[in-house]
Amino acid sequence: MSKKLYKKITDELVNSGYIIIPHAMHNSLQSQLLTEAKETTNYKKASIARAVNKQIDSEKRRDSIRWLDRDDGAQSEFLNFTDGLGKYLNRELFIGIQYFESHFAIYEEGDFYETHLDDFKDSKNRVVTIVYYLNENWVNGDGGELVVYDEKNNFLAKVAPHADTMVIFLSDIFPHEVLKANKIRYSVAGWFRLDGSVS
Predict the structure, then answer these.
(1) pLDDT above 70: residue 197
(2) Into which CATH architecture does domain 2-48+72-193 fall?
């Protein structure tokens, strides 16, 4: 299954630069990740800049994060999937990916993240973004949608954070935002990097 999914992702990154995949993995992995995300207690407020200029700005971003670990469980299974995808992208597209970093993200009621790019102004290290949603029974009115724009800030897509939905896009091309969540919202967000180090 992974190889077919890797090919599908790679083809769409070449053709359009982004892909939205409902039912991307399997329910047991999503469910296990959701359980771990809910059980985690050491979330930290997310910053809006690289480590050297790290700052908290609740007017722009209000989510909290905790970095994923190799845990011999669901987190490792997800990271094994992304390891394979990174190798596939390198082999097919010669991107030069060296590292994948990812974290749980939790949006409490009222949290949002205004429009931004995932690569930083003074760095081109993040090349491909992955967002994987964990939320069960998400319905219209719960908010928290991901809105993706093109390079000219034209609307491309609005994605509700339904469980087992994955969104992948080129980090330096697509501005995006997270609309205000009306109830607690869980996801995994990650980036393939060229420099081999964590922000």
Answers:
(1) no
(2) Sandwich (2.60)
